[in-house]
Amino acid sequence: MLGSSRTLSAPVRFHFRSLLLTAARLQTFLAGLVLGCGLLSPLQKSAASDRISWPMRAGPTMDSVVAAADAKDLPLSWSEADQRGISWKIRLEGFGHSTPAIGFNRVWLTAATEDGTQQYIYCLDQQTGQVLHHKLLFENATPEPLSNPINTYASPSCALSQEAVYVHFGTYGTACLDPETCEVIWQRRDINCRHFRGPGSSPVIWEDLLFLTFDGIDAQFVTALDRRTGKTVWRTDRTTDYGDLDANGKPKLDGDLRKAYGTPSVMVAEGRAQVVSIGSRAAFSYDARTGEELWTIRHDDFNASSPPLHYKGHAILNTGSRGANLLSVRLGEATRGDVSESHVVWNRTKGNSDLSAPVLVGNRIYSVANNGVVTAVDADSGEEVWQGRIDGAFTASPIVAGDRIYFCNEAGDCFVVGVGEEFKVLQHNVLQEGMRASPAAADGTLFLRTFGHLYAIRQ
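Now predict its structure.
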């Protein structure tokens, strides 16, 4: 299948774009020289670095861990009441839960009208919050109702590479944009499913591929696109036995039990790169190059949304909301077929997070349940190390910066919790508005997307 494409060939366009990026980086370097001469304002004296700090929803290593260069000087405390730590705050038009993607002094995120008839891309200057691009990408005459009060039509996050920005709205469209001009290089609107409760799975970049996940009520599959051309490289349908058919052989609840929001992770085990993807009622591994199904594991949950974690040759899976399991699956050449009974090292059946994804620090898995219960689990054994509680309801996933974890709730509170052998809240910060979008970080700055604004918070 082919999506629509612009006129220049991919190699020519990407070579030209590389020249543009080189020029942009030279401009950043020259600005740094001017900064060194003390000619810029105090706000501008924290120049962004010339690299990609937060390329996808779950950060540079797909596990929500902030790189050391970006974690340095990340703020511990801030206050909106006296503007302490608030570098800038900008009102966003429309709605969205997408996590900002950050690189080359720019912040990218999506938004949509409440009814889903229009979907946009935002590009902002990382230092000042100035809107560089605010572009309408897709229009939809009759978008399917969300059927829930939580999701939006702009919940999948962008993915950022050296040459392009990839924007995804699930069945409503996927586009590759020029990062300098915001012009569309290619787009696809022919990869479809009925999301029923709205799209939520974010795209993932790996080498020359872009992985997309569709777990709707009528179709469930993972597909890989050539990220330079938008052409389909492979598509693999789920082989899940959902066990949800009624007496007439039709899925119960219109197929709602088949719905999931999972963003996959790419893991390399014994030399083979595999896409580990959690869907409703089952998780899968696919060969990253071919899409061949390698293994599957059955589970009882739906609404899966957490990206899998890779730990010492094991995949750590959180299977979904309402009684989610947290389990460890041993990877390797022998991990083939249905491994539900053979390769599960441990399975924690209670007290796990639901929509908020777990994070891994050292040999500890940290997570927060919707009700604010924070848990530390030993990644080798699955045994609970400690439990504590912070206030509020939690949908956004935390991020890790050194020995700190940032948990943000739906009321606008951000709790900074210490990494260690006991539960310790280091700081409780408050914004005027709540959030369901996960935080991002770059160059010592924390980026928080609330229900109506984007904040840049730094020391």
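The two ends are 49 Å apart (CA to CA).
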